[in-house]
Amino acid sequence: MRGQAHTLEGVAAALVVVLAVTFTLQATAVTPLTASTASQHIETQHERAAASVLETARSDGTLSETLRYWNASGGEFANASEEGYYVGDPPNTTFGDALGATFGDRAVAYNVNVYYVTDDGERRQRRVVYTGAPSADSVAATRTVTVYDDQQVVDADGDTIGPRVENASYLGPDSPGSVYGVYTVEVVAWRT
């Protein structure tokens, strides 16, 4: 009789353990979209790469040059698409080359946006590079660039070729004083 009680007790305990494991597995859904440490690591790498490209370009002046690579008569970026921005490929500037070298061969898509404030205080976005709609795992990095009234429109090599930005139908309104505008440049990157 005593052996039967121990056997019954063992079976009941095993049943409780199996039910607990089954409940736990059903409560925790693991899908292909569940974030993993590896995907978070890749996203962190993309964010750092975007921040590094932006910081280097801001420090050496090529970010400002890319913003001033401008078609003064058309009021858009030079050699851009009909929509006024670069579709799929970066601008033919030093900053554009750095973006291509950083993300181009790594199956990473990216968009570049520039933000500015209008005279009525509204924040506006203008596309610089558009590769497509970012996925849910996209990351972004930003840097601020100041463009001055006396800076000129430049060619792809950064050589001055055109009028001063204040006379070039440039991006956003002219601020009072010697500063034309302060722009926030954003790079959004994601795996394709």
Q: Please identify the structural class as seen in this structure.
A: alpha+beta
Query: What is the number of independent domains?
Result: 1
Low-confidence stretches: none
What level of helicity do the residues show? 25-40%
Q: What is the number of E strands? A: 9
Shape: elongated
Number of helices: 4
Roughly what is the average pLDDT, rounded to an integer? 87
Please summarize the sheet with the most strands: 5 strands, mixed
Strand content: 25-35%
Largest beta sheet: what is the strand line-up? Answer: 3-5-4-9-6
The topology string of helices and strands comes to HHHEEEHEEEEEE
Q: Output the radius of gyration.
A: 27 Å
How far is it from the N-terminal to the C-terminal residue, by CA?
67 Å
Any overview of this molecule?
With 192 residues, the protein is of the alpha+beta class. The protein has one domain (36-191). It has four helices and nine strands. The strands form three sheets. A five-stranded mixed sheet has the order 3-5-4-9-6. It has a two-stranded antiparallel sheet with strand order 1-2. A hairpin with a 5-residue loop joins strand 7 (152-154) and strand 8 (160-164). The protein is elongated. The mean pLDDT is 87.
